[in-house]
Specification:
Length: about 450
């Protein structure tokens, strides 16, 4: 049975707020969103990067952490992100010791190095050395010092359309883009995200104590809750309700979240047997969204979408062994259960060969870049999207095989070190192996 929650019977003022939120959410749902530079795009950059001249780095970098008086500050968390082609731990956390020092291990070669320093009640700081900078002959330093700054307090209250406090709302916070300051350890734009997000208490209250002082630092929020329509992008509810950074600093900001419509359904095979673990995507491009646009079916083959505003959107189902299926669904209070019965998939086999000698090219990366005009069908391997289990690479024989592809054409991208990248190539499942010729880079 479809689970529904509506906003009927609201007083005029609360109804206006609810309708404004739903209208804005509907508008956003129709517009592709782009992720921030440290989200999914960083992983994409890491996977796609092919540095021609990685830096010959040292084995360590000594990170010092000082307080506002210039004294060593122990207990500072130093998070390290490293891009390297070596087998190396790419992300690691260190804790500064009693001397305010942390010795960070580095690989022999790297092409991106990023450092974050954070402590409770202090502004999180960021420093980075990017590929372009290192490719110009510059090197990472042997030592780097973070001068920690005391944070200031912001906060507010989250309520529902009836004016009652919402407990358990997740409040994430970030700073607006700060430009490109000198790399001396500047405030990180990420104030509280993921596991560091704030959760509202029984009174709907939340606070955050690591915000840098100064009017030049503006704060943007993202609110989520399993029972209410959540932010579809950073700052959406905040903008609609005209909540400013000044109000957040005064801890007088009240934000309203409204109940939405819950859509559910069952995914089954041709015989009606429920399919557990199928990925159900709502929207057109989950990889480039700032929200989670996918859910999995349970043991009974049932999926449940989060609360949504009235809208018309595409729902795509991806289940290993069965052809993907897409349907446009109109979401309203009267929407019945949206069930899908999948059909057997089709075999797509692509053989990659060198343009010069015609020999097979092993290990070519294969990405899905579009299907039926949108990007809801994907095979990205990333923590921010659910794994669809669609193959991502050709085998040692140079053959890429996906045995449960849809019958119609899908757009693909192909990448392999030393060869020209190809994108937006349409191929359709066929009985025979289809040959794809790759040109060496520079031709």
């Amino acid at each position: 049975m479809t689970q529904r929650q509506t906003c009927g019977g609201l007083p005029d003022q609360r109804a206006n707020i609810a309708l404004s939120l739903l209208a804005a959410a509907l508008l956003v749902a129709a517009v592709p969103q782009f992720t921030t530079t440290t989200g999914r795009t960083l992983m994409a950059a890491e996977q796609a990067s092919d540095p021609s001249s990685p830096e010959a780095a040292g084995r360590t970098i000594l990170v010092r952490t000082l307080d506002g008086e210039g004294k060593p500050m122990p207990g500072v968390n130093v998070h390290v992100g490293i891009w390297t082609k070596e087998s190396f731990e790419h992300n690691r956390d260190y804790l500064s010791d009693a001397q305010g020092q942390a010795t960070v291990k580095l690989p022999q070669t790297l092409y991106i190095l990023r450092l974050w320093a954070s402590a409770d009640g202090y502004v999180s700081l960021f420093a980075h050395w990017e590929r372009d900078w290192l490719d110009n002959g510059k090197r990472t330093p042997k030592e780097f010092t973070f001068k920690m700054l005391k944070g200031t307090l912001i906060g507010g209250v989250i309520k529902n359309e009836d004016g009652k406090p919402i407990e358990g709302a997740k409040v994430e916070a970030r700073l607006n883009h700060l430009g490109e300051p000198e790399n001396e350890g500047f405030p990180s734009i990420w104030l509280a995200t993921g596991e560091d997000a704030r959760i509202t208490d029984k009174q709907g209250k939340w606070t955050l104590n690591n915000v840098p002082a100064g009017e030049e630092y503006q704060v943007t929020l993202k609110l989520t809750h399993p029972d209410y329509i959540s932010d579809f992008e950073w700052g959406l509810l905040q903008r609609i309700q005209a909540v400013t950074t000044k109000m957040l600093r005064e801890q007088k900001a009240t934000l309203t979240m409204v109940r939405g419509i819950r859509v559910t359904g069952t995914i089954a095979d041709p015989d009606g047997k429920p399919l557990e673990g199928a990925v159900v995507v709502w929207g057109d491009d989950p990889y480039h969204q700032n929200r989670s646009d996918e859910v999995r079916t349970d043991a009974e083959g049932v999926y449940r979408l989060p609360p949504l505003p009235p809208a018309e959107l595409n729902v795509t189902v991806i289940a290993k062994g069965w052809a993907p299926k897409m349907r446009k669904v109109r979401i309203s209070a009267e929407t019945p259960p949206v069930d899908f019965q999948l059909a057997p998939g089709h075999a797509l086999r692509l053989k990659f060969v060198d343009d010069e000698d015609g020999k097979p090219i092993p290990g070519v990366g294969v990405g899905i870049s579009g299907w039926r005009g949108i990007k809801s069908l994907y095979n990205h391997k990333h923590s921010n999207v659910l794994d669809t289990q669609i193959p991502v690479k050709a085998g040692d024989d140079g053959v890429y095989e996906w045995t449960w592809a849809p019958a119609d054409a899908v757009l693909y991208s192909f990448g392999k070190e030393g060869y020209q990248f190809r994108e937006g190539e349409a191929y359709q499942a066929k009985d025979e192996v289809q040959e794809v010729t790759l040109l060496k880079r520079g031709e």
